[in-house]
Design a protein that fits this description.
Blueprint: E1 10-13, H1 14-17, H2 35-45, E2 49-53, H3 54-57, H4 64-81, E3 87-89, H5 108-128, E4 132-136, E5 141-142, H6 150-171, E6 176-180, E7 189-190, H7 195-202, E8 211-213, H8 217-222, H9 227-236, E9 244-245, H10 264-277, E10 283-285, H11 295-321, H12 323-332, H13 348-356, H14 361-366, H15 371-382
Parallel strand pairs: 1-2, 1-10, 2-3, 3-4, 4-6, 6-8, 9-10
Antiparallel strand pairs: 5-7
Length: about 375
C-alpha cells in the first residue's frame, strides 16, 4: 500500500543518499558513490527524481571535456532508469573562496565569481531539465557584525538575484527560483534567516513573480518555529515553489533526520496540509541516513522517508473522513450567520453597525472549545487505535 509511484514526486539529492557519513568529529563510514551509482540506487528504492548541486555532479576543477563526459554518463543513467531532475542548485559554501559568503561577500571578485559559477550551474540545471532552481545562502552571513553592514549585504543579495533572473529570461529558460532560509550553521548568523524573511525580501526584487521559497523542516525547527505555519504562509502567497522534508529535534544543529522520525504529529499536519491544498511540486527529502548505516541502511532510510509520507497521507485522509473528528470540527467552527453583516468588504454602514452591536463577552470567555478532545482523537488516529 505504501510503495512510491511517479505521481508522488518523491525526490532526493545526490548529496543526501550519497552522504558518506563524515562529520566534524569522524571520518567517512561509507565509500563515495558516483552520481550514476546514486541514480541507480534511487531507482531501486522507487524515487521519482534526483536533485543536485553543480559540484555534486561535476567537480569544481573539472575540465570542459571531463564535464561533458560526466553529464553525458549521468543523462544516460537518467534515461535508463526514468528518473528526472526537477531541481538544481549551486554549491556556494564548500570552496574556501566562499568563506565570507558568495553574493554578500565583501570582496567584489568573490561576488563576481559566485555569479559566474551560478550562471554555469543554471545552464547545467536547464540542460538536465530542471524547472526549479534553489538558492541556499549557507555562507551569506557573519560571525561578527563588525565585518558587514546588513544593508549592504541585502543590497548585494538583491543585485545578484536580479542579475540572475534577467539571465534566465535572456536565455529563455523555463526556470523559477526558490530561496531557502536557515538561521545559522555554518555561519554564526545567516541573513534572511526564516521563510517569512525570504517572503518579504522577494517583494523587493525586480521579478518577484519568478522567485518563491523552498522551506525546510529542520531549518525552521532550528529557529524554534512552527514549520506548518510558514509553509501555509508561503502557499497563501503563491510562493511555495519547492519544499525540503526531513526531521529535527528542536534546539539542535541541523540534523537532517529521516522524515517523520522525530516530530510525528508535526509531520502529519504538514502532509495533511500539502495534500489538502493540492500541492503539486516535488516532495524532496533533504535528509541523511544515520552515520551507523551501510548502503543497505541508506536504502532503508530512503524507503522510510517515502513510506512515512504515504502512511501519513493515508492518515490525513482518515482524519478528514472520521465522523467523530468531523462532527467536532463542525461544532468548533459553527457559524449561525449572525456576524455576516459585519464582515469584509468594509462599508461605513457595516462599521457603524459593528460598533453598535452587543456581544456577551462573559459567555464568549466561558465557552469550552473542545481542542483537548480533538487533539486526543488525532493522537489516537496516529497511534492506530481509531
Amino acid at each position: 500500500m505504501y510503495e512510491p509511484k511517479p505521481e508522488h514526486k518523491f525526490t532526493f539529492g545526490l548529496w543526501t543518499v550519497g552522504n558518506i557519513g563524515r562529520d566534524p568529529f569522524g571520518e567517512p563510514v561509507r565509500r563515495q558513490l558516483s552520481p550514476v551509482e546514486i541514480v541507480y540506487l534511487l531507482a531501486e528504492v522507487g524515487a521519482y527524481g534526483v536533485n543536485l548541486h553543480d559540484n555534486d555532479l561535476v567537480p569544481i576543477d573539472a575540465t570542459p571535456a571531463e564535464r561533458d563526459k560526466i553529464v553525458t554518463d549521468f543523462q544516460q543513467a537518467l534515461a535508463d532508469t526514468g528518473l528526472v531532475v526537477p531541481m538544481a542548485t549551486t554549491n556556494l559554501f564548500t570552496d574556501p573562496a566562499f568563506k565570507d559568503g558568495a553574493f554578500t561577500a565583501n570582496d567584489p571578485q568573490v561576488r563576481a565569481f559566485a555569479l559566474q559559477k551560478t550562471m554555469r550551474a543554471i545552464d547545467l540545471g536547464a540542460e538536465l531539465g530542471a524547472t526549479t532552481y534553489v538558492f541556499w545562502g549557507g555562507r551569506e552571513g557573519t560571525e561578527t557584525d563588525a565585518s558587514k553592514n546588513p544593508l549592504d549585504a541585502g543590497k548585494r543579495m538583491r543585485d545578484a538575484l536580479n542579475f540572475l533572473c534577467d539571465y534566465v529570461i535572456d536565455q529563455g529558460y523555463d526556470l523559477k527560483f526558490a530561496l531557502e532560509a536557515k538561521p545559522n550553521e555554518p555561519r554564526g548568523d545567516i541573513y534572511l534567516a526564516t521563510t517569512g524573511a525570504m517572503l518579504a525580501f522577494i517583494e523587493t526584487l525586480d521579478h518577484p513573480e519568478m522567485v518563491g521559497v523552498n522551506p525546510e523542516v529542520a531549518h525552521e525547527f532550528m529557529a524554534g518555529l512552527n514549520f506548518l505555519h510558514h509553509v501555509a504562509q508561503a502557499w497563501d502567497s503563491g510562493k511555495l515553489f519547492h519544499i525540503d522534508l526531513n526531521d529535527q529535534a528542536f534546539g539542535r544543529y541541523d540534523q537532517d533526520f529521516r522524515f517523520g522520525s522525530v516530530n510525528l504529529k508535526s509531520a502529519f499536519f504538514l502532509v495533511k496540509f500539502l495534500e489538502d491544498v493540492g500541492y503539486g511540486g516535488s516532495r524532496h527529502f533533504d535528509a541523511h541516513a544515520y552515520r551507523t548505516e551501510d548502503y543497505e541502511g541508506v536504502k532503508d532510510f530512503a524507503r522510510g522517508c517515502m513510506r512515512t509520507y504515504l502512511i501519513l497521507k493515508e492518515k490525513a485522509a482518515q482524519w478528514n473522513a472520521d465522523p467523530e473528528i468531523q462532527a467536532l470540527l463542525t461544532e468548533i467552527h459553527a457559524d449561525d450567520g449572525s456576524t455576516a453583516v459585519y464582515t469584509s468588504p468594509y462599508t461605513p454602514a457595516k462599521a457603524t453597525a459593528l460598533k453598535e452591536a452587543s456581544f456577551d463577552r462573559v459567555a464568549l470567555g466561558q465557552r469550552g472549545l473542545g481542542y483537548e478532545r480533538l487533539d486526543q482523537l488525532t493522537i489516537e488516529l496516529l497511534l492506530g487505535v481509531r
